Amino acid sequence: MVWRNLRIAILLLILGIAAWSNWYDRLSTTDWDETLRVGVFPIADSDNEVTHDYIARLPAASVADIEQFLNGEARRHGVVIARPVSVELYPPVAEKPPERTADGVLQNMWWSLRLRMYARRAVRAAGRRPPQIRVFVRYHDPSFTRTVPHSVGLQKGLVGVVHAFADRQMTRTNNVVIAHEILHTLGASDKYDPATLAPLYPTGYAEPELEPPYPQSAAEIMAGRYAIDSHTFQIPESLDEVLVGPATALEIRWTRP
Ligand SMILES: [Zn+2]
After folding, report:
1. How confident is the model at residue 105 (pLDDT cuts 50, 70, 90)?
2. Cα(174) to centroid of ligand 1, in Å?
3. Rounded mean pLDDT, 21-39
4. Can you give the chain as a three-state secondary structure string?
5. In the predicted model, what is the mean pLDDT of the chain?
6. Distance, CA 67 to ligand 1 centroid (Å)?
7. pTM, entire model
8. How much distance in Å is there from the Cα of 10 to the middle of ligand 1?
9. Residue 192 CA, ligand 1 centroid: distance in Å
């Protein structure tokens, strides 16, 4: 009986710590009173020269437009500190993140736990001040891979895994995906119809108040596409064609209800 109670107590303690740490992470990453540090860690997913070469030559400035975009949008939504977000490129990571094998509550918990441990290991290996948000970018060689798996961003764990293309001409579109997953880690939700990929109206529109609503001139970051007319949706080529809409700004607490 004592052992049983003790086991239950330990289990409750672990669950309590997990709940507290998720709550603390959510609060400390979305209070916007000091710079939130985001680290981007490249990984050569295709083990060939093109991919390794691309990663080795990635300049630190290759992620600059992500920081510029997030800080510009934060300011537009009323965040007052000078640099709400810093986005830094870290050295490449050799080990790949754990794969999500099967769907199911337990399998997902196990995968997310392994992903957190992986992130901690990878960040420690970089030997620099650890960022609060860790985004692992798996680069694929576009001449072998036409479509890549879905990217993810987890608020519980503050980790993102992005699938991207090792091609200089795609750096700017890769950065749209990286920014999208960063915002997921801050609590933003997707704003497109998963069946048709159409942006949801009004939350998935960068300018929902536009009358008539078409054509939109930019995509809402969590919608991924913007409406030219009621059935034509355009993928942005860079963050220059993307905005953070009011619904996302509210979710990540740039604005308050
Ligand atoms: Zn998403």
Report:
1. confident
2. 14
3. 93
4. CHHHHHHHHHHHHHHHHHHHHHHHHHHHHCCCCCCEEEEEEEEECCCCHHHHHHHHCCCHHHHHHHHHHHHHHHHHCCCCCCCCEEEEECCCCCCCCCCCCCCCHHHHHHHHHHHHHHHHHHHHHHCCCCCCEEEEEEEECCCCCCCCCCCEEECCCCEEEEEEECCHHHHHHHHHHHHHHHHHHCCCCCCECCCCCCECCCCCECCCCCCCCCCCCCEECCCCCEEEECCEEECCCCHHHEECCHHHHHHCCCCCC
5. 94
6. 19
7. 0.93
8. 35
9. 9
How much is the average pLDDT of 225-247? 95
How far is the centre of ligand 1, averaged over its atoms, from the C-alpha of 99 (Å)? 18
Query: What spacing in Å lies between the alpha carbon of 103 and ligand 1's midpoint?
Result: 17
CA of 218 to the centre of ligand 1 (A): 17
Please indicate whether residue 212 or residue 81 has the higher confidence score (pLDDT).
81
Residue 189 CA to ligand 1 center (angstroms) comes to 7
CA 85 to ligand 1 centroid distance, Å: 20
Cα(144) to centroid(ligand 1), Å: 24
Give percent of the chain above pLDDT 70: 100
- Taking residues 41-55, report their average pLDDT: 95
Tell me the pLDDT tens digit for each residue of 136-161. 999 999 988 778 889 999 998 999 99
Tokens representing 184? 């997921």
| Cα-to-centroid distance, 190 and ligand 1 (Å) | 5
- 198 alpha carbon to ligand 1 midpoint, in Å? 13
